[in-house]
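so i finally got all the pieces together for this one. its four components total, 470 residues if u count the protein bits. some of the lines might not be protein, just check the labels. i wanna see the whole assembly predicted at once instead of chain by chain like last time, that was a mess tbh
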Amino acid sequence: MARTTSNPSKSLGEQAYARIRHEIISGVFAPDQPLRLAQLQERCGAGFSPLREALTRLAAEGLVVSESMRGFRVAPLSLDDLRDTMETRIFVEAEALWRSIERGGDEWEMRIVSSLHALGRQNERTQPDDPDSLAALEERHRDFHVALVSASGSRRLEQIIDNLYLGSVRYRMPSLSNMPSNPSRDLMAEHGAISEAALARDAARAVGLLTAHYRLTADVLSLAHSERMARTAGR
Amino acid sequence: MARTTSNPSKSLGEQAYARIRHEIISGVFAPDQPLRLAQLQERCGAGFSPLREALTRLAAEGLVVSESMRGFRVAPLSLDDLRDTMETRIFVEAEALWRSIERGGDEWEMRIVSSLHALGRQNERTQPDDPDSLAALEERHRDFHVALVSASGSRRLEQIIDNLYLGSVRYRMPSLSNMPSNPSRDLMAEHGAISEAALARDAARAVGLLTAHYRLTADVLSLAHSERMARTAGR
DNA sequence: AATCAAAAGATTTTCGAAAATATGTGTTTC
DNA sequence: GAAACACATATTTTCGAAAATCTTTTGATT
């Protein structure tokens, strides 16, 4: 079979999955937007079977919703879901961070240091109007937070944290592009302080700082989401 | 199209998903067993597309694993996974129970009382050699534990609890059928005590009892799993 | 006997036509 | 005008053949 675009040694289903996933996260597909097979077939260059497979998988992850015999839609966003997701992240990641501080070794410390460094570098070079560099920044940001909790010793907690991150990232992406440089907030300082407390094995302080970091983020995103909803409703 | 078996107003994909899910949980398909499309096609009477869709969904839920270009297998079981899953259940359900005790109203209390009652009834009439009644008992057991934490107010916690239950139920099913009546354990008494503490709004006691209940279960299941592994390895 | 290559076989993955279902439009009836 | 029905269109869902890929067997060579 002739691959129209490229051959990254991945099945078409995998490619379609990755692509649709990315386009939902980055907002190309808006919340609640119907995902029609014919439309995706053209866009992804794949047949029905791999597309349905990709959508089913995304539905299981919570990025799309599927109604029997009526196809798929991008999963909706809501203020309630944002708050719930962020509070649950705090609850789970606080525990995972605590355990990581107790159990983490050199590898864990190295991962924190290096991911924090990479986050800072990407932060310097990111242009607010360049979607690619924003996506890269988000990736670094995720890597840092994953690194913090990566020594919990629990595969299950890791999976839960992954899924909760996925549930929250869609609220952040539009904020990133609309808020070039946040005035009253020094994100790198917050990240640095968390990292410092974690490496000093001060679990209580690290967890407190992480919690505050997420609560602040939740507030910022809530505001941005509400404004976006108000703007969209008036169209 | 002529449905060979029945028409429960569900798509073939849904049917196949429910069936394979049930057969993995109940042990018809053993851990690590390859799931070949041709075999499933015959057994489920569905074509490739709905079957792949069902398997993809089960893979996202963690019941099967998928290797690119090499198909699907039933997800393996392990002592580590069992321990991790049960400890994570304790962590998450303890929080959800605490919140439910704080927030639950009449509906929550009614749900606990009625599901406990139904669990007791099913417990009386269950025959250890009847797979159907064992499945019904497991269903009642699940309903009771879901009821306990059903007033947490967090959709995310509920989803996590659902998924963790799914991750642990496969370890319980074989134990149920091999241990007709557990000698040193009165499960109904444990459930009754948890229910009592929850309804009395004694959060600390309820959480303590629930934790002990799950720890005991984890120990029993660990033992049973180890014995099963030893027996299987020597064949 | 061990090693490797090519062929044969088995299995997964993809495609597009056909069936099943949902949605929209117009017509009739009251 | 509103409800009810039939028809036409749009969309999802399913099927089975064909292509792509992996696995095993065969056979030649050292």
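Residues 1-8 of chain A have pLDDT under 50 and may be disordered.
Residues 203-233 of chain A form the longest helix (31 residues).
anyway lmk what u think
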